[in-house]
Every structure is written in C-alpha cells, then in structure tokens.
Amino acid sequence: MVNGGSRVLYNSAIALSVACAGAAAVRYLPTIPWDSWPQLALFSALTIYLHARTVKVENRMNYSLGTAVFFPVLYIYGVGAAMIVTTLAAVVDSVAHKKTVDRMLFNAAQLSLSAVVCGTVYGRLGGTFGYAVSLADIWPLLIAGFVYIVINVSLVVSLSAMALGRAVRSRLRGLLRTMDKDFSAGFWGVVFTLFVAEYSTWGIILLGMVFAQFSRFIEMGVKMSVERGMRQELERELLIDSKTGVYNFRYLTEWLADPAVDPTAVLFIDIDDFKAFNDRHGHAAGDEALITLANLIKSVIRADDAVIRYGGEEFVVLLPNMTRAGAKRVARRIQTSLKNVRFPRRDQSLTVSIGIAACPEDTKDKHHLLGLADQAMYEAKRSGKDCCHSWGESAVVHSV
User: Fold this and answer.
1) Mapping DSSP to helix (H, G, I), strand (E, B) and coil, where does residue 267 land?
2) Are residues 223 and 305 in the same domain?
C-alpha cells in the first residue's frame, strides 16, 4: 500500500520506467523478425498459459516457468521480440491475479528494460543471436541470464522502497529467498534456447509441452502443500489452549490413547491458593498469572517436552526419556524461577505444588502414571504447599 508521502515518487518512478521502456521499444521493435511469426505465436501462447498458472510459493511471492520462455525468444529472435513477450506476460499476470494498472505498467516496463540490458550484455560478451546459438555460447547465455534476474529484482526492490519505505527490507529478504527459483527458471531458459536452436519449431512444441505439464505439477504440489499446512495448523489449534498457548486436555487424551509406552516422567503442577489470588486481584490478574506460569514452565523444560493445561490452575508436564531424579530437578527449577515473579504487584507472589511420577520406575501404564503424579501433588499440598513430592518416596522436598 503506497502512503501519501511516497505517492508522487512512486508514480514518478513508474512514469520514468514506462518512458524508458517506450524509448527502448522505438529502438528495438523494428528489429523483430516477423517472418518467424509462427514461432513467436507459439512462444506467446506458452507465455500466456504459464503466467496464467502462476502459483504462490511464499507470502506475496509468485513462481512461474514463464521466465524460462523469455530467454529463447531473446537469444534467438532478439530484444524486440523479447520485449513483446515480456509485456504480454505482465498483462496476463496482472489480469489473472487482479493487479492494479500501475503495477501492470511497471511490471511490463521493468521486464522490458531487463530484456534490453540482458540482450546488451549477451551481445557484448560475444553471444550469437539466432538459430546459430550453441553450447559455445553457454557462458554468455548464463551470465546474461544472471544479469536479467539481478536487474529485474533490483527494479522491483527500488519501486518497493519508494512505495513501502522501511518495508523494503522485508521485501528484499523475500525476493532473495525466492531468487533460487528465478535462477532455476533461468537455467531452464538456457536449456530451452539450445533446444529450440537445434530443433526449431518442433523444439518449441515439445519442450513447451514439457513446461506446461511441469507447471501443472508445480501448481498441484503447491496446492497440496498449502492444504497440508492448513490442515496441520487446524489440528494444532485444536490441541492448543487458547488462554495460555500450551497444549490442552485433548492433547493429553491423545497421548494417553497412544499404546506406545516410552520412558517418561510426569510433573503434575497446581498453583497454591489460586482461588484466594483470584478473589483478591480479579480474574484478569488470574489469567495473567496462568499465562506467565505457562511461559515460565516452557522456558525451563526442553524443546521436546510438553506443557499441558490440565484444567483451571493445574498443569501437566511430560518429560520424555527422563528419570524421576531428573524430573525432580526440573520441578525445583520451576519453583526457584517462580520466586522471582510477582503477580500482579511487587508484594504478591505465587507458589506451586508439584507431584512427580516416572515410567517405568513407578508404573508402565500411562493412566496410572498420571494418577500417581496427581496423588504425589496432593501429598505435596498436605505437606505445606510450595514443595514437590515424588511418588514412592517418603521425603517431601520444600522450595528454598
């Protein structure tokens, strides 16, 4: 979205780009080899098809094999023909993806100007235009293709700087992340060029069909990836507690239903005197306390461990491949860290009672394991709160 202060500069940049592209068109359009109109028509049809099937591969980033079509047109039929094809690509892309007129004009202009620079570099490097292109021209082909992509990206970033101001950095990072796809399309463009130089019209038809089919595969793959990501996100949301951001009881239910029994320690955590805290400070402060405690627990445990809001002010922590002794150390770290937190004022703190049980030390049944940790937590409550107790041990460890 262009802000008011940048509108004049933005429009001026587009006008300048269009003017430069227009001047280049006057210079190069007369050089189009119209006697090759059947081949140019095939390239135009392929360009329309590929750009109409452009797929989004990242946020605001599109990918199309249409770039690969540009290179054989430029290297074999010249800069003028390439300007026509790139302008057609910009128009089709804008119509297919409902882009504004100013964006369409800029895209057409910057693609045309990139074609001019690319063709100039290719000629200066001694590259051969026409059907005489061969493997002997491979380095001019690759270098000129690289220049085309760099110029293209530079012009887009420049306009983004005028339109978006500080947002250009994120735009530049996004473009750089997708440049590998541009280089891939450029490589296939060089292959396409050599193929057409060798087989003429049949080369356009055969490799064009391959590109069209490959474009469909890309589109299908991206759609499947997006759908899979949305499904995973939905499944994740169903397992997340909306208030604290940790797992909910449904996650625990799925863990209990899984028949696999692996060595796991369980912490059953309950906030001491939480009802009194809520009555004194209000439910908003109570919610803040729950969120803070959940984040504190996550900061203490490992990445593969799981924090679950069991209900109300109770949390369960699953610690895979950890012994009872290791779980006790984690419980002590939670209680020690909690002493440095005040809710919601400097003179008010919270404590927790923690019950500990471990598999297979205490039981090999998951439901029984959770029950033992719960009972151990109540033993910690009976022992004065603000302490942790391991099932099967007589001693209760009080927080220091």
Assistant:
1) strand
2) no
